[in-house]
UniProtKB/TrEMBL annotation:
GO cellular component: cytoplasm
Highest taxon of source: Eukaryota
Gene Ontology annotations of biological process type: anthranilate metabolic process; L-tryptophan catabolic process to kynurenine; NAD+ biosynthetic process
Molecular-function annotations in GO: kynureninase activity; pyridoxal phosphate binding
InterPro entries membership: Kynureninase, PyrdxlP-dep_Trfase, PyrdxlP-dep_Trfase_major, PyrdxlP-dep_Trfase_small
Name recorded for this polypeptide: PLP-dependent transferase
Coiled coil regions in record: none
Keyword terms: Hydrolase, Pyridine nucleotide biosynthesis, Pyridoxal phosphate
Amino acid sequence: MANIDLHKPLSNEFVVPTNAQIGATESLAPRANENEVACMGTLTNNLHLMMDSFYKPTPDRYKILCEAKAFPSDQYAFASQAKAHGFDPEDAIIEVSPRDGEYTLREEDILATIEEHGSSIALVIFSGIQYYTGQWFPMQSITTKAKEKIFKEIGMLPVIRERSLLLTGHLEKLLRESKYFVPPSEAARQTPLNPCFTIITPTDPESRGAQLSLLFLPVGAGNMVKIFDYLAKHGVTGDEREPDVIRLAPAPLYNTVDDCEAAAKYLNEAFDVLTS
């Protein structure tokens, strides 16, 4: 088993946010509410700020994949980022071009390029719409392919899955220790005088993902909504599904054991308030 620190978000190792949120002043937009306006830089400046966060090249994985003849200032930004990290743009930037006699890119050519150069690609970046031809790029298939290739190359999938198993297992343990937890076999016997919950997700870790589905009992008593509201007010983000289920899913890239413990703590507090 890998040495995984569950107290730190895994995402910190891959994406380092650098953008500060800037509030707009009323003088900038006198006809808009302050919370409806955001200060923005130029498109190229925004692109640089984004790439500062996501472009993390290494000696072996440093290339930028983009469409050929991207918007000119975008191309300058790609080249500037490569130079800033000590790479030659001629080598560091891979441009996917249309086939001879064609004007737009074929999806299969983009995916094939990712497959061919995946071990050296640090960033895949395409405009939503190609400014010159108006081609809409298939972002879902591009990002899916890039994730699969990069995760496969750097061995992230096993690490993420192992971390997910540990976090969800820890949350499950905490929930089962709650005095308000009952086994699924006892769910049908609960009365309105005894608010409680059970977990209807499979207990076998290999038969589930990150999610635990909590069924609040007795069904139809309205307890789920009250518990959900209490959790939300205390920073626990779950998902409510009728009838009477709240889904809690520790995200392995972002959540920690502290988040799991906070979720269990506030769940118990919510029941304490409900039954007081």
